[in-house]
Amino acid sequence: MLARPEQFFAERFGLTSSLMERVLGPSLIGRVDHADLYLEYRVNEELTLEEGAVKKASRHVSQGAGVRALSGERTGYAHTDDLALPNLEEAVRQARAIAEGAGASAVVPLGAGTPHDLYTLAEPPLATDIGRKVELLQRIDAAARRSDPRVKQVIASLGSEDLVVLIATPSGWSVGDVRPLTRLNVTVIAEEGDKREIGSFGGGGRVPFDFYLEDERWQRFAQEAARQAVLKLGAVDAPAGTMTVVLGPGWPGILLHEAVGHGLEGDFNRKATSAFAGRLGQRVASELVTVIDDGTIANRRGSLNVDDEGVPTARNVLIENGILRGYMQDRLNARLMDVAPTGNGRRESYAHPPMPRMTNTFMLAGPDDPADIIRSVSRGLYAVNFGGGQVDITSGKFVFSASEAYLIEDGRVTAPVKGATLIGNGPDALTRVSRVGHDLKLDEGVGTCGKDGQSVPVGVGLPTVRIDGMTVGGTQV
User: Measured between alpha carbons, how far is 467 from 112 in angstroms, rounded to an integer?
Assistant: First the structure.
């Protein structure tokens, strides 16, 4: 992939900056509040090893452009998968037609800002020889099977992507980005008697293929997936009722992401459909809670040099010592709420308009020793990993299933449990945080967030956290 998106699109498709300015300018300047052109060229590769053999090997190339015109609260959006000039001109006409008639004024010139350089790689993961990738998957398969005789099936997959984007406006401003991404997943099925359980583990980010070879990280992935599957074979039914819950560090931050993070996105708050709407400057959480969304962490899955509107990403403080400080914004909602965009305008692809989305969202570390937090609980649940979950943005109510959890009895972690769900309300749960550990950890790099039919890569993080009086759903009282 080329290091300069402007050069890439000019050489491959003839889309020079002057040409894009001519396509956008005459049709949009003076007619709408804001307009932009989003160009995308994406290459995906996926390898899957199952039952010791490569069951899937694919490479997919896609390209396209999306034209957006904003007028008042109205968004006109049109896209095409053909980057020929007539198709771009038609997309501009369609987007303008949708947006017109809503009190348009003039296109606002954009400040370029300073893009980051968070993931320039000597060798993008897509460029690595496919033979090395297949060999890695075979080594993972063997390592998982060696870890325990109860392991009966192993599925290992490696996905890699290169994405080139360029965002341009009628005023002649443009900014681009080249985004590598890779993710390794390991799924293990263990059997004992008539019991059959599944464990999974994985990770990645905007990193090279050799990331998985460092310190034999791949081996830890294989062993962890096998450990989870075997552990579940001996799990007991989870208790039900109101109890103290301790969330482990890292991936349990997904609960923070879903139960709280979405409610802090600008569009929900502008429309007053979030439980956090109109509460800036108010206490919304325990004073131990500080929540950050940071798209500037090098090589992380949720990080971006610029967002999908060309705004440099930032470290945004959402909640500080329990006080609500801000929301995540794209350009549209920032303009309508009379605030600055925060670098959170994201889209799944050229076929989708941007909207406020999270990048890497986490809670800052606190003062406590994680072991002391466990010892402080006489009876409760220690949740280490989560599977699926649901949240209602308006009310903040959530339900999450714990894929790995344990009983806490007399200050000690004891039996693994199955069937545990956490039920609560996001804003209320934040007020019940009574202890926060000093062990902040970001997830391994597997998060994908869905919103309004769009999926984007994200990161989450959490230190060990004690939450009092949570409702746990289980199978016995």
Answer: 43
Task: Give the Cα-Cα-Cα angle 363, 212, 57 (nearest 5 degrees).
Answer: 110
Structural domain count of the chain? 2
Same domain, 137 and 163: yes
For residue 2, pLDDT over 50 is answered with no
Q: How far, CA to CA in Å, does 242 sit from each of 191, 378, 381, 388, 469? A: 33, 13, 10, 21, 6
Of 4, 357, 379, nearest to 164 (Cα)? 4
Rg (C-alpha) for the chain, rounded Å, is 24
Last residue of a domain, one of 218, 233, 248: 233
Asked whether residue 109 falls in the same domain as residue 150, the answer is: yes
Domain shared by 226 and 242, yes or no: no
Do 344 and 421 belong together in one domain? yes
Whether 82 and 142 map to the same domain: the answer is yes
Sequence letter at residue 159: G
Cα distance between residue 129 and residue 423, in whole Å = 46
| 453: region left, alpha or beta (phi > 0 left; psi from -120 to 50 alpha) | left
* pLDDT level of residue 68 (50, 70, 90 thresholds): very high
At 128-140, the pLDDT tens digits run: 999 999 999 999 9
Structural domain for 203, as ranges: 5-233
229, 244: one domain: no
157 token code pair: 């997959």
Query: pLDDT tens across 99-151, in order?
Result: 875 444 444 445 556 789 999 999 999 999 999 999 999 999 999 999 999 99
**Of 192, 208, 233, which closes a domain?**
233
Collect all residues with Cβ–Cβ distance below 8 Å to 362 and sequence separation of at least 6. 253, 256, 291, 292, 294, 440, 442, 459, 460, 461, 462
Instruction: Give the pLDDT confidence score for residue 108 in this predicted structure.
Output: 44
Domain identity same for 299 and 342: yes
Bridge partners (DSSP) listed for residue 91:
none
CATH number of the domain where residue 28 is located = 3.30.2290.10
Q: In the structure, what pLDDT confidence band is assigned to residue 396 with cuts at 50, 70 and 90?
A: confident
The token duo for 439 is 């062990």
Nearest Cα to Cα of residue 174 among 7, 352, 62, 339: 7
Q: How far apart, in Å, do the first and last CA atoms of the chain sit?
A: 57
Whether residues 277 and 201 fall in one domain: no
- Residue 281, pLDDT > 90, answer yes
